Amino acid sequence: MSGYNSLLTLSGSEIWGYRLSQLVGSGSYGAVYRASSGSDTIAVKISCEEQDLAIEALTLQLFYYRNAVPKFHFCNKYGPYHTIGMELLSHDMDSIWQKVDWMAFERPTLIKFIYQALTCLEAVHALKIVHRDVKLSNFAITQPRTPGNQVSVRILDFGLSHVYADADGNLRDDSRSFDFSKMKYAAYDASLGCDPMPKDDICQLGYAVMYAAGFDFAQQLKLPADDLSNWKGELIRDPANNLPLSVKFMLPFFELVADLNDVVPIKYDLLKQRIQECLPEVDATCDSILSEENGKLTLT
Ligand SMILES: Nc1ncnc2c1ncn2[C@@H]1O[C@H](COP(=O)(O)OP(=O)(O)OP(=O)(O)O)[C@@H](O)[C@H]1O
């Protein structure tokens, strides 16, 4: 069995006193299991990528008291694998999206999601960390709280993240030398070969919202590299005429995203204000509600 496949068959194993009971998710590098010890239930991420997991563990620890990421429990080695124990979230946004009618979230859901996702990114950027892997499946919601099933958005997966500047603001290189221009869903500047910076996380959040709104982003990603990059460039040059129809109502937000650069500090409050302006009848600051009926999930 290949290294990666063996990551997917660890149900029943015991790690640091937690028994892995169910595979709840997997990505290119890791598998994530629900794990229990007595009444305590957490998520355990397992990967062969030592450095990425070490960076992720360090990052999660920095955010323990901020409600932006799953709370960190431990990191440890398990045979050939590296593991992180963390708060168990309920569903990632991509798997909820796959179950909604027409594979398109409704406007109120989109507005609340983007507001909370931006709040997560604000917390990440405040520590001079750039995430660099912003996509729908890297956001998840907390376990529903009672009464009312309220849930909040958290950002996941810091394997590609990087502390881009020191306390004095001097830029720091990443020795891992990733080539983000090859990443299909990279922001426009990164697709041209620039190092991804916080504004690019926000630009990628914009792509994630287009996808969540039902725009066929997967088809767009199949374009030849130059055409894809041109499309991303046009979105920034003239969002009013190039935004997909399903997110045109979010033009006030996308216009501000198009104006972001790496020099002027990002005004998160203004971005949030713009998000609220896109749909004034919905309070973007309210938590979302998760309901489940006959196996069908609804996030409102
Ligand atoms: N704390 C958690 N609680 C519940 N599910 C989680 C948690 N962390 C991750 N998951 C699930 O596991 C999936 C994969 O996790 P993650 O993105 O961290 O793995 P990865 O291998 O680094 O993925 P990628 O391919 O994006 O690099 C997520 O999309 C989500 O469904």
Automatic annotation (TrEMBL):
Biological-process GO terms, alphabetical: signal transduction
ATP-binding as UniProt keyword: yes
Pfam families named among the record's database cross-references: Pkinase (PF00069)
Superkingdom of the source species: Eukaryota
GO molecular function, one term: protein serine/threonine kinase activity
UniProt-annotated binding residues for ATP: K45
Occurrences of domain Protein kinase (ranges): 18-300
UniProt keywords, alphabetically: ATP-binding, Nucleotide-binding
GO CC annotation: cytoplasm; nucleus
PANTHER family: CASEIN KINASE-RELATED
Protein name per the record: Protein CBG07264
